[in-house]
Amino acid sequence: MVDVLVIGGGNAALCAALMAREAGASVMLLESAPREWRGGNSQHTRNLRCMHDAPQDVLVDAYPEEEYWQDLLKVTGGLTNEHLARLTIRASATCRPWMQKHGVRFQPPLSGALHVARTNAFFMGGGKALVNAYYRSAEAMGVAVQYDTPVDAIELDDGRFFAARSGERRFEARACVLAAGGFESNLAWMREAWGQNAAGEWPADNFLIRGTRFNQGVLLKYMIDAGADVIGDPSQSHCVAIDARAPLYDGGICTRIDCVSLGVVVNRQGERFYDEGEDFWPKRYAIWGRLVAEQPGQIGYSIIDAKAIGRFMPPVFPGTTAATLDELAQKLGLPGEPFLRTLADYNAACRVGTFDHTALDDCHTEGIAPAKTHWARPIDTPPYYAYPLRPGITFTYLGLRVDEHAAVHFGGQPSDNLFVAGEMMAGNVLGKGYTAGVGMSIGTAFGRIAGARAATAALHAAQATQGRGQHHATA
């Protein structure tokens, strides 16, 4: 029997395993994926949102707690637990030296990563390098790692953990950390969560999964059925508008379309449906997946002209190009008259001031709905470009309710030896919406808390068992 069993293989699980091992506990980590696909969605990440009151190596200026909190409050629309959110924010200010101790390296932001040099610390080599560094450190410290081991059941008694099961295999431990991700890769569950729309469509049938194919939600469903306290809306998720030509799973960051704020987005009827310039892209990119999901056929098209080229991180697939807007509509299969009318109305409504894509500038529209609040310039300079958009799900927000100790709750009571971290509890902080890098902040903060608490619980249990053994020996 090990002291601490960690179920999951991404950032939160690895942080928990490392913290528990540092505390002196014996640790085993169970990863459902094979070794080459280890790391969950963390392998597709690239940065961590960090609070800081002064410049810190790769972070410029300052990003104080209150600004971070207001950013989070805005994107969630208030659907967040302030106590747990502020705990996450404060933890983000102090975690990087610990991460570096375990081999994670940071770099300045890439030139196309808009507006995040101040708020986000980028991993050198991306999420895959972070995951590999943590696994190297864990293995060097004596953490036992089992790949190809999806857990399908947990043995519980009155909220206490006793063992995990993977098929016929059974893993006992004195304490456990659940960090096995959400259910976004379970397409049947996604279909059930989103249901049918008014047009009779099943929106989830047209979703793409940006992250790992291994997040099937089996353990999450088991815990819900076992009576664990739940938080979050099953239809809410980190949902990004990505290239419609992306693969079903594991497209990662390179399939994101980052030119939305530089042009307009239309649906398959050739009509605009939301303000493309509402705010900086890192604060708004994660609303666009849901916006596209609400459109007919769950598809949209990001339209730009030559003026936008070079101002955004180019996606992996080239855009559709045309010398005229009419030709572009034909190539996209869009109805020509509505599309051209939408673009003409938009161009006429643009009030161009001083264009500055690094600031909330004064280029806006007047007299049309939806408005474009910033960065509004006529789309009038050929060649014209279009990128097809589909909803890209990163991770789901339905999860287990926690407290500041990361304990799983049953009927409002915290378990004394079962903890949860990462996407399985992110809904406590993210009721809806997203801002770049906050998922890694949540996973790192609660992974470290869960690992430390699990180690304490396990070592106390071991001491109690040893004490009982000595008592029986002397009796």
TrEMBL record:
<dbReference type="InterPro" id="IPR027477">
    <property type="entry name" value="Succ_DH/fumarate_Rdtase_cat_sf"/>
</dbReference>
<feature type="domain" description="FAD-dependent oxidoreductase 2 FAD-binding">
    <location>
        <begin position="3"/>
        <end position="430"/>
    </location>
</feature>
<keyword id="KW-0560">Oxidoreductase</keyword>
<dbReference type="Pfam" id="PF00890">
    <property type="entry name" value="FAD_binding_2"/>
</dbReference>
<dbReference type="InterPro" id="IPR012831">
    <property type="entry name" value="CobZ"/>
</dbReference>
<protein>
    <submittedName>
        <fullName>Tricarballylate dehydrogenase</fullName>
    </submittedName>
</protein>
<dbReference type="InterPro" id="IPR003953">
    <property type="entry name" value="FAD-dep_OxRdtase_2_FAD-bd"/>
</dbReference>
<dbReference type="InterPro" id="IPR036188">
    <property type="entry name" value="FAD/NAD-bd_sf"/>
</dbReference>
<keyword id="KW-0285">Flavoprotein</keyword>
<keyword id="KW-0274">FAD</keyword>
<dbReference type="InterPro" id="IPR050315">
    <property type="entry name" value="FAD-oxidoreductase_2"/>
</dbReference>
